[in-house]
Amino acid sequence: MTAADGRPEAPDPDATVLAERFRAIRAATLALVAGLDAEDLVPQSMPDASPGKWHLAHTTWFFEAMVLVPLAGQAPADRRWHYLFNSYYEALGPRQPRPQRGLLTRPSLAEVLAWRAEVEDRILALLTSGPPPGAAELVALGCQHEQQHQELLVTDLKHLFSHNLAAPAWRGRAPPSGMRPAPATGWHRHDQAGPVAIGEDGGGFAFDNERPRHTVWLRPFALADRPVSNGEYLAFLADGGYQEPAHWLADGWAAVQAGGWQAPLYWRREAADVPWRQFTVWGWRDVDPAEPVCHLSFYEADAYARWAGARLPTEAEWEAVASRRGLDGGFADNGRLHPAPLHGPSLGGEVWEWTASAYAPYPGFRPLPGAAGEYNGKFMSGQMVLRGGSCASPRDHLRPTYRNFFPPAARWQFSGLRLARDL
Amino acid sequence: MTAADGRPEAPDPDATVLAERFRAIRAATLALVAGLDAEDLVPQSMPDASPGKWHLAHTTWFFEAMVLVPLAGQAPADRRWHYLFNSYYEALGPRQPRPQRGLLTRPSLAEVLAWRAEVEDRILALLTSGPPPGAAELVALGCQHEQQHQELLVTDLKHLFSHNLAAPAWRGRAPPSGMRPAPATGWHRHDQAGPVAIGEDGGGFAFDNERPRHTVWLRPFALADRPVSNGEYLAFLADGGYQEPAHWLADGWAAVQAGGWQAPLYWRREAADVPWRQFTVWGWRDVDPAEPVCHLSFYEADAYARWAGARLPTEAEWEAVASRRGLDGGFADNGRLHPAPLHGPSLGGEVWEWTASAYAPYPGFRPLPGAAGEYNGKFMSGQMVLRGGSCASPRDHLRPTYRNFFPPAARWQFSGLRLARDL
Amino acid sequence: MTAADGRPEAPDPDATVLAERFRAIRAATLALVAGLDAEDLVPQSMPDASPGKWHLAHTTWFFEAMVLVPLAGQAPADRRWHYLFNSYYEALGPRQPRPQRGLLTRPSLAEVLAWRAEVEDRILALLTSGPPPGAAELVALGCQHEQQHQELLVTDLKHLFSHNLAAPAWRGRAPPSGMRPAPATGWHRHDQAGPVAIGEDGGGFAFDNERPRHTVWLRPFALADRPVSNGEYLAFLADGGYQEPAHWLADGWAAVQAGGWQAPLYWRREAADVPWRQFTVWGWRDVDPAEPVCHLSFYEADAYARWAGARLPTEAEWEAVASRRGLDGGFADNGRLHPAPLHGPSLGGEVWEWTASAYAPYPGFRPLPGAAGEYNGKFMSGQMVLRGGSCASPRDHLRPTYRNFFPPAARWQFSGLRLARDL
Amino acid sequence: MTAADGRPEAPDPDATVLAERFRAIRAATLALVAGLDAEDLVPQSMPDASPGKWHLAHTTWFFEAMVLVPLAGQAPADRRWHYLFNSYYEALGPRQPRPQRGLLTRPSLAEVLAWRAEVEDRILALLTSGPPPGAAELVALGCQHEQQHQELLVTDLKHLFSHNLAAPAWRGRAPPSGMRPAPATGWHRHDQAGPVAIGEDGGGFAFDNERPRHTVWLRPFALADRPVSNGEYLAFLADGGYQEPAHWLADGWAAVQAGGWQAPLYWRREAADVPWRQFTVWGWRDVDPAEPVCHLSFYEADAYARWAGARLPTEAEWEAVASRRGLDGGFADNGRLHPAPLHGPSLGGEVWEWTASAYAPYPGFRPLPGAAGEYNGKFMSGQMVLRGGSCASPRDHLRPTYRNFFPPAARWQFSGLRLARDL
To answer: Are C103 and B45 in contact (CB < 8 Å)?
Structure first.
């Protein structure tokens, strides 16, 4: 590209930054599956989860279907792959039925990786040669989208491996489980009733569901300065928490009965007098009392809080504290992919925290235009908001205003809780 | 009862009022089933509905199990009936499985009616002789409870009768369907951003879920001055509303597909070129364009609003307008049990109005003590709030602060919608 | 009716016999529901069962739809009832969905009984005035059909009542359960290999599925001279019969697991160290060791036989013995409606006996012409043959050639077993 | 191995033959997956099917679990694999749940292939060094078992590939579909009523379910001299065969409705006026009228026969003809894996033929001793017998007495039909 006066044009610094970010995020996705076989990336362990190969392909499809085809006029690598790897965008045509994603043996992993590389080259070429209007925004969105799928890739693989007696330790060797409990919980106090602004207010990237920034009225409350630990949750179990309906929402109690839940997902014990063990990315190990409790449904988080004489925070309460304090827990970048033992106050990272808030549009919410408008808005029913990010979330994907959401019975995410109470 | 000085004690005026109210409400329940056979009151048409006889018995059980047995030390009429007619109170022991309520041929209707009469006598005796502490409050709660079941009795019977080709007109003869549309919609404006108090603040009866009164922050909005009409909804149908996923929440679109929904519940037409007909308490008749649209799920209400370029109001917005304006539509007391044609502004009555608000505890919510604490709080997940009351709600059961709630796919209540928009 | 020569014509003796039989069978049906409320006859306790009122109406529909309308040109009492009370005859038009038979509160029992009376009068008039060609045969078929529904009426009501803690003793008071075991089992020997004829060969009424009489080749075998008793079955339970997969067919073991079966249907015990009790038409009582074991699925009968070192007989073996020996157990006519204690050899009555034979057409089988052709033939897959009749079968409905059939998991009939072994 | 007199002992000629057969069969299994990726062998497309890798492992497990461990005292390669690859042998311990076979990414294909090779070496060593008592019989059984899984490997892979738009032609290029119909059908007559012996009578290998040889009584019948063709089946479709309940068994009609069946499995057409196409091992191609119709359920075969004024043969009728005539169709050995066009009389091969016979034990049936006793007997309920073998059956695996069996709704096998009629 050449400027009008004949000198080679300097690359757009924003596009350069975006290209670098794009390259890094794509590489991070591949790093997550390093060391796995192609076979590990084929199956789908439940309709809510997706195969690893599907994640690799779908995140590539996003850039091709949202950017290269509509904005750059390029032909798709293979039209059939648009059918196979569209997740739910009705505006972009029909799709492989979700429960049949695990039947896709073709394209092979090698073909998907080649497609990834080709699409990356094309996106980078587009960015460096002056992207068409709207393309940079959609590439940025695609980077966020890919980061979300990085986390799903981890949780879906973990779910898959949990069904296989013969699954090797996926990520090396487990650190020993400690026997010490987590340190005592302190409280962040919010003493003044009155209006508080939450939601995104401008500068950086944010999803449409974080907007607009708006006022909510908060009453005095206190938010715990760390998540609930395994040790504390073990006391709930020991107290018969899963046998006493009074602790539970009606839907939660029904889920306990129907699913035969007796502990968090991935916890097992052979007999009533041996310690609980849990399945991790390192394989099976003893439950560590100092780690944040994890793989809870909303119902379990809510029941625990009621049992503990407290409650879950609303997302506004959570954000009011987080926007003052910032996020400081452990994220995917440290490579652990398992929540670290608690050693003092922390907020964000390690485990997503269920809130008391149903996932709903903020007042004045406007979905993105075009097909990207299906990104968030259409899921605004039947789900609960989680905040903070987890040990499987990329650090720079998160913000205090970030809203994650899952159905209340979902347990395969790294989901825990933090207590709140009225003042 | 005799006062200390030997004079006959004057009855407590509050207890007298309550006794009269109790008597009137019990009679109103029976009036709803007048003219029906015992056989009509046995079946259960779906797990969400209950048989008529069950409603008659359950509302009686409530007084016996919550008042007579625990507070007055009386023996239950028959212990087995406590098993049969407990709805969901875990604290009060095991229950007939909900989907098997339609298998209760015994006790017979005659026995249930005799039980009703006996419990009524005992409650009245208790009230007039000076009720033990807490009893008056629980009788008042039981009256409200019975009024709720009056509405369910109507909607459950309607659902049952809709499955029977041979069902007679339950309530006489249908008035002819008009061909005129409803009058144009106007708007209630709320122009000022700022704090507004909602929830119950004192005097009269209110459920625990309406408390405490608290502040919310509202942005400027407008609320339609009447519900959406059948005529307007027919335009949504004619525009392919049930064929276009862009109008729908993802869960709503899934419900449309799974249920084969093509119109509101109870609407049918033989062919694409004949008018829609609907099942009513009078039997089948043509859809009247001037009536409020009814028997919608939340998903349909939400989709219509999106198609119409508007949105559903939040419950706080709805209440802010209603508490200024009051409720004035048609209620069960007029005996029609079908929404009347719209002829101008109205708010409340005729059809429940789905709001955009998930059913959740108000800040500072405290459930009632004892078994009654299971009344509302444990259902605070997975449901949406409806406001206003319907043609099947007793007038004096409703208030602007009243919160009804149903799962988003429920359609067998008299449920419609009112539009809102941002200003 | 007058003969050509003016003398009053003598009634056709066959028609007179048939009319008397028709009258008696219709009356026997009503006798079964004597003492029950209309409410008892409304519900449907599972899709396989039907409401009592439905049986009363369906057996009437049969005569109207098969005889009065097509052969006598009469108008149906109400066309809608043909929709409601057709069971499965595709040739006769659409039907109330089977799982929704319990939703038919209308026509009322009183209306159904009036319809019964009217159809009876018309059929009797037709028979006495000289029936049109084919009518007598279809009335005879309708009588057999009604007798089959008499048995279903009993078993369906029993199933319904079993779901209601408050159900009264339906048929008076239970005789005390004895403690003595049944007498020892002897064997009917069939020592000679060679051809044997089975199936109906002429004279009396028989269903199409019993025809044609044909030759089968039998090997030497022995058939027990009485059914298996409760006492013997208790030994199977005590030996862990329901815990050991080696005794069971694969489908049977799956049914045990899925259904949580631990004993025959209607057996319960509060704890492992108290006697088993069973639900009967008299209410709950102790299991009597001398009675034939009853309410078994085919899978349980087959598993018991394997455990006992024997096998189930084929239907040909059973019939070969029965046609020599005749049927002599207790049938519905004795009014007991519960199998009597065994006191010696018996064959037929008390409990239906599962055979090893899948229900299939006999060689040369021809279905009846017309709509009646759907009577038997179309069920010839997925079911097993039972022989002998039960305590709920009318005596004159049964014959040694009679073939009953149910799916292998069905347990709500009075179904037991008799052992066989190779010689 | 050395004989008593010091000379090297000559290998047992039987063991040598068996070893050669073992080697050839194991190689044939691998040949079926040649050219496929490891990824193709991981997924499970429905609970009835199994992944390719699972078949490769399970057939190896059989030799290890039935021969090497119990008879030769060898240690299993990996105890966990006995959990993963046991199919249904209750006597051999717990198993990976059948619907979760597709979640086994480990052991990898490479590990499974290495295990195959190791077990093959050990079995060959055992055979050549003088196998322990019973081992040769179980190796022979294992060879037969492996041949059965060869066919399932083909049909399960075909089912899997049918779900993937992007699946390549698995087996090269389809031969063009002809337009000529199959030649006219002739009939094999069996004119004499009387006893006929069926079942295995000695010499070669046979499964326990083929034994004992026994007498059945046959009536005169005729059996078509070739299977029904696609062209004939298209006439059934054109005549509204899938819309007319009179042709169908009640269970069959229910399956048609529930499954939305409109044609055989793997048939599709875009519109009513274009030719039907079918999915094959070569990908999609036009239906060839001269080929035998294939991928029918028993219900479809039975309905077609009734529509055609004929019936299905019993297995005894089929065997009576086959044992005179022998089997001569195309088997898996020709590598086609798709039924060849009919060009004259043929019996056996190409497509399995549904019979009218429920799968039941022959009189005097005795299961194999030990764990192998679970091989056949426990499936003797709820299934129908198929005869003849298919284009996916190894030729030397079949015999005229061979009994295959599947549930009546199964369609993913190469299953068709041949007509019979009474004489």
So the answer is: yes
Q: Which of B218, B242, B381, B422 to mutate to test the interface with A (most CBs of A within 10 A)?
A: B381
Q: Which class for C244: exposed (0-12), middle (13-18), buried (19 or more C-beta within 10 A)?
A: middle
- Summarised one tens digit per residue, pLDDT across range B119-175 is 999 999 999 998 999 999 999 999 999 999 999 999 999 999 999 887 767 888 888
Backbone angle region of C6, left / alpha / beta, with phi > 0 → left and psi within -120 to 50 → alpha: left
pLDDT digits (tens, 9 = 90+) for B323-377: 999 999 899 999 999 999 999 999 999 999 999 999 999 999 998 888 888 888 9
Mean pLDDT of chain A: 93
Touching subunits for chain B (3+ Cβ pairs under 8 A): A, C
CATH number at residue B106: 1.20.120
Give tens-digit pLDDT for B377-405.
999 999 999 999 999 999 999 999 999 99
Contact by Cβ (8 Å): C293, C232 = yes
Q: Among B162, B197, B221, which residue terminates a domain?
A: B162
Domain limits for position D87:
13-162
Among A39, A45, A78, whose Cβ lies nearest the Cβ of D39?
A39
Question: Quick one: closest CA in A to D78, which residue?
Answer: A166
Residues B216, A217: C-beta atoms closer than 8 Å: yes
Using CA atoms, how far residue B169 sits from B147, B285, B293, B414, C122, in Å, is 24, 11, 21, 18, 30
Cα separation, C36 vs C171, in Å, equals 10
* Whether the Cβ atoms of residue B222 and residue B317 lie closer than 8 Å to each other: no
Give this complex's ipTM: 0.94
**Residue D315 host element (H or E):** helix D315-325
Q: Based on the fold, state whether residues B149 and B54 are members of the same structural domain.
A: yes
Beta strand spans in B63-121 (E): none
Q: Same structural domain for residues C204 and C342? A: yes
Inter-chain CB proximity B106 and C38 less than 8 Å:
no
Put simply, the answer to whether C105 touches B167 (Cβ < 8 Å) is yes
Is residue B81 included in any domain, yes or no? yes
Query: Does the N-terminal peptide bond of residue A107 adopt cis geometry, omega within 30 degrees of 0?
Result: yes
Which chain A residues have any C-beta within 8 angstroms of a chain B C-beta? Answer: 88, 90-91, 193, 195, 214-217, 219, 245-246, 248-253, 298-299, 302, 314, 356-358, 360-361, 363-364, 378-382, 384, 408, 422
CATH code, domain with D375: 3.90.1580.10
Chains D and A touch (3+ CB pairs under 8 A): yes
- Nearest neighbour of C38 by CB, restricted to B39, B84, B166: B39
D278 belongs to a structural domain: yes
Residue A4 has pLDDT above 50, yes or no: no
Note whether C touches A: 3 CB pairs or more under 8 A. Answer: no
Task: Give a three-class secondary structure readout of chain A.
Answer: CECCCCCECCCCHHHHHHHHHHHHHHHHHHHHCCCCCHHHHCCCCCCCCCCHHHHHHHHHHHHHHHHHCCCCCCCCCCHHHHHHHCCCCHHHCCCCCHHHHHHCCCCCHHHHHHHHHHHHHHHHHHHHCCCCCCHHHHHHHHHHHHHHHHHHHHHHHHHHHCCCCCCCCCCCCCCCCCCCCCCCCCEEEECCCEEEEECCCCCCCCCHHHCCCEEEEECCEEEECCCCEHHHHHHHHHCCHHHCHHHCCHHHHHHHHHHCCCCCCCEECCCCCCCCEEEECCEEEECCCCCECCCCCHHHHHHHHHHCCCECCCHHHHHHHHHHHCCCCCCHHHCCCCCCCCCCCCCCCCCEEEEEEECCCCCCCCCCCHHHHHCCHHHCCCCEEEECCCCCCCHHHCCCCCCEEECCCCCCCCEECCCEEEC
**Residue B174 counted as domain residue:** no
